[in-house]
Amino acid sequence: MDSKLIIYNTLSRQKELFRPLNAPYVGMYVCGPTVYGDAHLGHARPAITFDVVFRYLKHLGYKVRYVRNITDVGHLEHDADDGEDKIAKKARLENLEPMEVAQFYTDRYHAAMDRLNVLHPSIEPHASGHIIEQIELVQKILDAGLAYESNGSIYFDIRKYQEQTKKYGCLSGRAIEDQLSTTRELDGQDDKRASSDFALWKKAAPEHIMRWNSPWSVGFPGWHTECTAMGTKYLGENFDIHGGGMDLIFPHHESEIAQQTAVTGHGPCKYWMHNNMITINGKKMGKSLGNFITLDEFFSGSHKDKDGNEMLEKAYSPMTIRFFILQAHYRSTVDFSNEALQAAEKGYSRLMQAYKTLGSLQASKTSSVDISKYTSNCYDAINDDFNTPIVIAHLFEAVKTINSVHDKKDTLTQADIDELKRLFDVFAFDILGLTDESASDNAAVVNGLMDMILDIRAKAKANKDWTTSDAIRDKLKEIGITVKDGKDGATWSIE
RNA sequence: GGUCUCUUGACCGAGUGGCUAGGUACCGGUCUGCAAAACCGUUUACUCCAGUUCGAAUCUGGAAGAGACCUCCA
Q1: Between the CA of A344 and the C1' of B39, what is the distance in angstroms?
Q2: Does the model's ipTM exceed the 0.90 cut?
Q3: Structural domain range at position A308
Q4: CA torsion through residues A221, A227, A231, A237, sign
Q5: What's the Å distance between residue A339 CA and nucleotide B36 C1'?
Q6: 3-class secondary-structure state, position A444
Q7: Does residue A423 reach within 7 angstroms of strand B, measured from its CB?
């Protein structure tokens, strides 16, 4: 368990050796989705990034408790409808119970994540189920003298916090003094003493339909309290890893640190990890810009942007999306394009094809290729801050070897073949979380049918009846099955 | 305006002070009735300027361009 895992910690802006606080236990909290809309490609990034972290930590033998929240209380809507949260707004528009909306999108989020082969977190707490914990947190911050009540709402007192700790800004690196002196006027800030103060509890306006009782007013919790309250409840006051998208560093994670520090004197975790954004035409893919493509749209291949242009040339399978994301390092931006996705699709299918080929390789007495480094190379790459593109590059070295042996240009012993199989099982499937999409439930039936069809075609070929053999191949192509003739007979694959 | 980050070949994307990642595409070849696949080979790089160095795409300084955050956002 004494691994050499290195993690880039946003807090120190450095790569650090991963040392759990209480090995072999590891606690990890990742900010989950706000369930008021369908998950888009951007949501897949943190889900897959931290899925790999989760999988690798477990692979190393740690007992990981992975908490990923569902934000179903919404956050404040900035513009027009002051004080109304996103879910409430959507609910009013669609004339539904807020929880109906949240449930609907939660289910859809889960379905999309399942297709991406993202493991379920250990605990997936709902913000709405932890209102009491959040109220308790607010009370503790009030007791510590670092919050104040104003018109039934409670605000975090940044100025006072800063006097005592000088810590606000430690994660995002921004100088809070600049913000304290800012003169910018923001809507609905009249109750605050300073514009940088953030809400811990917000009194609900009459039209606000998501509301709970509290000692201060009927209202709803502030923007950042759920993660602090639920993280503490399930992982303790100090846990190992807190993750999320880079766009959450400020103000969300900065404020989480402030809330936790106000109560305990220290931040919530040891390592902060942040994944970068997915861009489209060089711009961040996000809700606010309206330039997002949902995961379901990728899977079905149809999407219209706001000008009615079709952005997707074809459908992209869940594993294509997963492979595409893993081909970039999680701290780099990754740019969406049809060309890039199609490249990923081809690469992914070549990887899977090689794994199948591996199962049918003939062992030799000696190996002409030295494969001893492949596994250690993969470990080195994943240990270096989860460098999945390098892991994939090493897997492709193995692909090259497998194909070369299959073509009888190289040889491998049975032990080496087994070693390669283990390499794929561990890295491609267990850690990167890829699955072979062509392997379906009724595969046995399809295999049998295909054997029969190809047998007929082989006989036609033997009789030089090219009309028949080509007709079979063309017809199969039409229904999405590609036939390839090789030296030892034909093989086939489903597109 | 403030804080921070990035700029690699046709495209996507790693990485490193000297030994040209990887994928996709393209081109040539092997194979094949044809095609595809597979394999082999080839081509195209490190935004610009100056400095440090025996040597920089990699370090330092400057310029240009792009992006993120500062407001809900993964």
Answers
A1: 21
A2: yes
A3: 279-431
A4: negative
A5: 21
A6: helix
A7: no
